[in-house]
Amino acid sequence: MADWTEQTARAKAWFEGLRDDICAAFEAIEREAGSDASFEYTPWTREEEGNPDPGGGVQGLMKGKVFEKVGVNCSTVKGSFSPEFAGQVNGASVDNPGFTATGISLVAHMTNPHVPAVHMNTRFLTTQAAWFGGGGDLNPPIPYEEDTEDFHARFRAACMAHNPTYYDKFKKWADDYFYIPHREVHRGVGGIFYDHLECRDEAAFERNFAFTQDVGKAFLDIYPQLVRRRMNTEYSDADVATQLEYRGRYAEFNLVYDRGTLFGLKTGGNIDAILMSLPPRATWS
Questions:
Q1: Which residues contact 191 (CB under 8 A, 6 or more apart)?
Q2: 90 to each of 51, 105, 129, 131, 132, how far by Cα in Å?
Q3: What string of pLDDT tens digits covers the 285 residues of the chain?
Q4: DSSP state letter for 63
Q5: I need a labelling partner for 160 at 20 to 30 A (CA). Which of 47, 80, 118, 210 fits?
Q6: What is the number of other CB atoms lying within 10 angstroms of the CB of residue 17?
Q7: Active site residues
């Protein structure tokens, strides 16, 4: 297929609906904790010289009692890659630098060190090719085996409903990707990560879109359960120190290795939305 306009619009609508459901679920948790914190939404417009319709997005941010800082962003952008970046992207080249991208990106940093931080994103991109990517991974400063097992089990179920090879493949991809080489540690306890689920025709788009939707549903199902499980756990100053040290590692990964950060910066994205993944507080010692 040469024209993915309709499919991009469908993916955009799904991502924005998922955002609304996630934000509502997170606000409900704040209410349970006696907090009236809500998301604040900030629209932004991308700029690209000579492009009359470069797109943009909406940054959603909440700072509450349970969620110290959580960002849920949606964006839909289109334009042309710079010549030096075009050759690094699937299906793009200096001669064909055009692209569209729509997606949701979420990072939550929690007040209680016993509640795991989390990252999730799903996206649909088109160049001369078209594909889905995304995933979710759990980032606990103080890991609990039960939480890790439940998180992975939910994503395993989502994968198995579509392809029996997906979970093992995408779990390994997450383990390999969310690794900090200069520290020789993983960023968290993993999850799934996938990219380049190619949509060579409409049937492939429908298959990959259905899987990507189930990844979002899996996240919405399991993560609020984990938050409620740990949000009232008592914690000490030592626990907070562990949390802040861990956040330093998290920030290092996102600034040095994360492809999404690089893609946003290279395509004229909103700086605040791109860097919303950074924790509100962190330490290095």
A1: 135, 136, 137, 138, 151, 152, 155, 171, 174
A2: 22, 20, 7, 9, 12
A3: 578 999 999 999 999 999 999 999 999 999 999 999 999 999 999 998 899 999 999 999 999 999 999 999 999 999 998 887 877 888 878 888 889 999 999 999 999 999 999 999 999 999 999 999 999 999 999 999 999 999 999 999 999 999 999 999 999 999 999 999 999 999 999 999 999 999 999 999 999 999 999 999 999 999 999 999 999 999 999 999 999 999 999 999 999 999 889 888 877 788 888 898 999 999 998
A4: -
A5: 118
A6: 14
A7: 119
Q: What CA–CA distance (Å, rounded) separates 35 from 277?
A: 23
d(CA 185, CA 6): 42
Paired strand residues for 56: 45, 76
Calpha distance 105→15 (Å, rounded): 9
Q: How far apart are CA 42 and CA 37, in angstroms?
A: 16
Backbone angles phi, psi at 54, to 5 degrees: -80, -10
**DSSP for 211-254?**
HHHHHHHHHHHHHHHHHHHHTT----HHHHHHHHHHHHHHHHHH
Residue spans of alpha helices (H) in the chain: 5-32, 83-86, 145-160, 166-177, 202-230, 237-256, 259-266, 271-274
| ∠ CA 177-210-260, rounded to 5° | 30
